[in-house]
Specification:
There is one protein chain. By secondary structure, this protein is an alpha/beta fold. It contains ten helices and ten strands. It has one domain: TIM Barrel (Alpha-Beta Barrel), CATH 3.20.20.100. The longest helix has 20 residues. It starts with a strand and ends in a 12-residue tail after the last helix.
């Protein structure tokens, strides 16, 4: 596993990060707590040291699962969580942080992130200055070690950076969703802000497990993902067929190929979710994959057959 620095924080993180949205159960189906805990522990044993969650994932349930799974190795891992858009006033941020600390059963959060920009999901807008003041105070108190933002545009990131040091940006980013490349990524690279790519396997699309006629079970939020819309989905299937020979030649799965492509890029780590131990181990193994320049260029070209026709909306879901 390759390790990288989290911005200028001095915190070392694994290039593959385990995402735990699914551990919250809400908006997912077929999730079992015991399997989630086993997956997190397997990820750690396989070399992943960094775990990402959020207060809104199952209303704290994901945080509790993460805290339970990692309690015996807390000093050896990096835990990242997020405050939601309805908790961004100064005191709400302070209270939300303490709630997350309790859920995670820890005295400190390594990376605390603003989950969505102020005003998202019909929440009342709060000035970024007020939010960053709360986060900076939490850092001064030792409750958090680093500050990050998620789903921010370049302009929002630039504004946030005027009120405090931002160590990371967490956007949706994969071979099939690349909006950040022409927006915030250049700013991040210039200012030493680490990119934490979520939905790095396009919510499972890049594993190749969804065939042309796939239908999601009731309650699974992924049916709202724009990549599953018929016109986009057809391009996805054609791209996967072109990616398969490259994966086979490198003796890796399609998912590992997608993760290896992301972490081959400077300043970027890949967040990958897993609902069981087998998936967690496979994701971790992607941290050891080395792709040739020729393969990386071919993968990049194939990915653009999916992304180039997409519109400019940075949100990956039709909510």
């Amino acid at each position: 596993m390759e390790f990288r620095m989290l911005g200028t924080s001095g915190i070392k993180i694994s290039s593959i990060i385990m995402g735990t949205w699914q551990a919250g159960k809400d908006m997912w189906v077929g999730i079992d707590d015991a399997e989630s805990i086993k997956a997190i522990k397997t990820a750690y044993d396989a070399g992943i040291t960094t775990f990402d969650t959020a207060e809104v994932y199952g209303n704290g349930h994901s945080e509790k699962i993460v805290g339970n799974a990692l309690r015996d190795v807390r000093d050896k891992v990096v835990i990242a969580t997020k405050v939601f858009s309805n908790h961004l006033k100064y005191q709400q941020v302070m209270d939300a942080c303490h709630g997350s600390l309790k859920n995670l059963n820890t005295d400190y959060i390594d990376l605390y992130q603003i989950h969505w920009p102020p005003g998202s999901f019909s929440a009342k807008p709060v000035p970024l200055e007020e939010i960053l003041r709360a986060l900076t105070d939490l850092k001064a108190q030792g409750k958090i070690r680093a500050i990050g933002v998620s789903n921010f545009s370049r302009s929002q990131l630039e504004e946030a950076s005027t009120y405090g040091r931002i160590h990371s940006l967490q956007p949706p980013y994969s071979l099939f969703w690349r909006k950040v490349e022409t927006d915030a990524l250049p700013y991040c690279l210039k200012n030493n802000i680490t990119l934490l790519a979520y939905s790095s396997m396009a919510q499972g699309l890049l594993t190749g497990k969804f065939g042309p006629d796939h239908k999601f079970a009731k309650g699974d939020h992924r049916f709202r993902n724009k990549l599953f819309e018929p016109e986009n989905y057809e391009r996805v299937q054609k791209a996967l067929e072109k990616l398969r020979p490259i994966a086979e030649a490198n003796n890796v799965t399609l998912g590992q190929l997608a993760l290896a492509w992301i972490i081959s890029r400077p300043g970027i780590c890949a967040i990958a979710g897993a609902r069981n131990a087998e998936q967690a181990a496979q994701n971790a193994a992607a941290g050891n994959v080395q792709l040739s320049k020729e393969d990386l260029a071919a993968i990049d070209k194939i990915g653009k057959t999916v992304t180039d026709p997409l519109d400019d909306d940075p949100v990956m879901w039709s909510w």
